[in-house]
């Protein structure tokens, strides 16, 4: 698969499992990215915490273009991302993993493309299968090699602008449109990876039922708590995926 990058979402600011770690910086046209380079079982890995080392960058202010272009410049050919999500689907429950295969884009204020005209031109990339099938299959295989990993193999990820959570009315609308999961970061990350011709997949960890489905109002700390409880399992899945 070439050089693999892990983009860690909420609750995955540090991979902890890499050897020979060093910090790196890469300048791009869109800004500078900070990443960590290390190795796992002899394979070079790049780790990029999406929200910064201390979770200080909110979803709507992440420099998605710099992140993806920076990884491309480093020679990354595959990105395995993690995302914390709420569930709209009664069959998809908190503490479970999902491998999204489709998305619905409800972001509003983000730079979603490298192709803004000018030097880069006007390009329309195909989004029939937005997530890399090969990497999704490898993650599924990794799950079967670990004990008690029930991974939902498909799901439609609804990406909202955030940083606020959704209203119950929005969640009802997303359900009607076919959404299964709701999160704030997968778009434009997945689209930019496609434009950069990098194989991209995300493991979504369900931290809560979405607003109006959950019996209580949502809090960021409940998301963090659920991620903390499951971080070992998530890390094990990522590392097994890299290994095989
Ligand atoms: N909505 C949006 N993003 C999220 C949620 C949610 O319910 N849970 C975790 N990330």
Structural summary, described in words:
The protein is α/β, with parallel strands linked by helices and 244 residues long. It is 27% helix and 30% strand. Strands 1, 2, 3, 4, 5, 6, 7, 8, 9, 10 and 11 form an eleven-stranded mixed beta sheet that branches. A hairpin with a 2-residue loop joins strand 3 and strand 4. Helix 1 packs parallel to helix 4. The radius of gyration is 17 Å and the shape is globular.
Helical region count?
5
Shape: globular
Low-confidence stretches: none
Question: How many strands?
Answer: 11
Helical/strand content category: alpha/beta
Mean pLDDT over the residues: 94
Ions, cofactors and other ligands present here are: hypoxanthine
> Biggest sheet, in brief?
11 strands, mixed
**Radius of gyration of CA atoms, rounded to a whole number:** 17 Å
Helix content: 25-40%
Distance between the termini: 10 Å
Strand proportion, as a percent range, falls in: 25-35%
Order of helices and strands: EEEEHEEEHEEHEHEH
List strands and helices in order, with pairings:
Blueprint: E1 3-8, E2 19-28, E3 31-40, E4 43-49, H1 64-73, E5 76-87, E6 97-98, E7 102-106, H2 133-145, E8 151-152, E9 156-160, H3 168-176, E10 181-183, H4 186-195, E11 199-209, H5 220-243
Parallel strand pairs: 1-4, 1-5, 5-11, 6-8, 7-9, 9-10
Antiparallel strand pairs: 2-3, 3-4, 5-10, 6-11
Helix pairs in contact: 1-4, 2-5
Bound molecules: hypoxanthine.
Hypoxanthine (HPA) is lined by residues 84-86, 160, 165-166, 182-184, 207-208, 210, 218, 223.
């Amino acid at each position: 698969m070439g050089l693999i990058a892990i983009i860690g979402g909420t609750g995955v600011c540090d991979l902890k499992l890499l050897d020979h770690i060093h910090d790196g910086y890469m300048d791009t046209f869109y800004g500078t990215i900070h990443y960590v380079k290390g190795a796992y079982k002899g394979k070079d890995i790049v780790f990029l915490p999406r929200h910064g080392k201390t979770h200080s960058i909110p979803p709507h202010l992440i420099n998605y273009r710099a992140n993806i272009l920076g990884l491309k410049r480093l020679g990354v050919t595959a990105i395995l991302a993690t995302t914390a999500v709420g569930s709209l689907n009664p069959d998809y429950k908190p503490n479970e993993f999902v491998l999204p295969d489709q998305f619905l884009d409800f972001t509003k204020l983000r730079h979603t493309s490298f192709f803004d005209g000018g030097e880069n031109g006007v390009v329309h990339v195909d989004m029939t299968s937005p997530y890399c099938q090969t990497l999704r299959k490898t993650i599924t295989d990794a799950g079967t090699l670990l004990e008690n990993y029930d991974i939902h193999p498909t799901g439609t990820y609804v990406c909202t602008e955030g940083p606020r959570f959704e209203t119950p009315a929005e969640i009802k609308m997303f359900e009607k449109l076919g959404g299964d999961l709701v999160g704030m970061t997968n778009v434009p990350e997945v689209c930019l990876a496609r434009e950069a011709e990098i194989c991209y997949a995300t493991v979504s960890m369900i931290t809560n039922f979405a607003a109006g489905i959950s019996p209580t109002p949502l809090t960021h700390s409940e998301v963090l708590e659920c991620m903390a409880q499951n971080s070992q399992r998530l890390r094990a899945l990522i590392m097994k995926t890299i290994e095989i």
